[in-house]
Specification:
Blueprint: H1 5-15, H2 17-21, E1 25-29, E2 34-39, H3 53-75, E3 79-90, E4 97-102, H4 105-118, E5 122-131, E6 137-149
Length: 151
Amino acid sequence: MKISPKKLNAFLLFKLPSAYFTGVRTKYIDKEKCIVTVKHRWVNQNPFNSMFWAVQGMAAELTTGALVMQQIKASGKNISMLVANNRASFVKKATGRITFVCNEGAQVEETIKKAIETGEGQTLWMRANGVNTEGVEVSNFEFEWTLKVKS
């Protein structure tokens, strides 16, 4: 079964409802790239009338995590995935529709291959940039994913 935006959005509804109800949605995914959007609304705003940082973090994490999930599925192996660390920078108020993009699918594939070949846990830093409808960066997130083949 192929991972698609529709399947990821259904996954959010049932497994991560806080992300779903705040408007986080996958728009596109392929082997190399994932795009996730979220629109500033009353339910996801902070007291400063912009998008709450944690909502941006959920969208950014999904952008990177969906690529990891897809590559794990393609490997056919039972591999655990977990965020060990993250970093974030906020450049501008997040209002309107924010689009997060991660283009690091090739790095994920290499890391999973190495985990399978060595049998040892591997780590990988992935970046997701968030831009508004004018194309101006509002935030960027980095997630350190740990991957380990289960025995």
